[in-house]
């Protein structure tokens, strides 16, 4: 963890850990979708623009750039969206869960674009990885969010996650988050991003918004 902080300031490390909230998931379970909606709320509060893909990572509320020190000025929860079970295991607050058949179908699409799709493989191989990940992740989390629940009512998901993270969003912030997370908006942002190397939002499946 100290390598993440890129420093030896124990006081800063304690502060960082006290606010760290991991949102864990097996790949293709709605992580990017969830991050985009939460990112919009953080963007409204920080004034830093949030768009899908790499630009989203400049937000102080996401840990991809903590080594720049911008998290120190960010007074709200520090969100780490993680697939790796080894990352801060005692700080997994949220787990995003999706039905295996849906995950596997989406993974097959991802494998056509990614040379190293570590979570893929044969159906049996992928299932074993998914089953272990889901069991561990669900056992850690304070809140488990089902992908189909988010698809049916994304507002419920946003409010439930924000309650666990103690973000206390206004109705306007929630409305803006839902707008940002709409499939058409994320596809538009994905198309305009210079940093994406694969289709995080599946362009072929109208019912998928990863």
From TrEMBL:
<protein>
    <recommendedName>
        <fullName>Sulfotransferase</fullName>
    </recommendedName>
</protein>
<dbReference type="InterPro" id="IPR027417">
    <property type="entry name" value="P-loop_NTPase"/>
</dbReference>
